[in-house]
Design goal:
Elements: H1 6-17, H2 28-44, H3 47-64, H4 73-95
Amino acid sequence: MYPITAGALIVVGFLMMRTVREIPWTDLEEAFPAFLTIVGIPLTYNISYGIGFGFISYVLIKVFHGKAAKVHPLMWIVAAAFVVTFILPAIQGLLG
């Protein structure tokens, strides 16, 4: 990452954090994926990994609560793509 982008990233982070107060923190099905996304981004140093954790956890929580039919088909596709993205390097490491 180039140092010149640091200022823009700080502003974007600030703008994103303004919407955190709108997350329904008392609703586990909504709050937990949001929390994983918020925490996952800085801990992995990767925005897409943090978003992936949020997508996957959202789908899994809905499934475990018996609300799989309420998950949009695109969410299933994106969550599956993130699972493949996370698992593929491990599989390649075992085979290679």
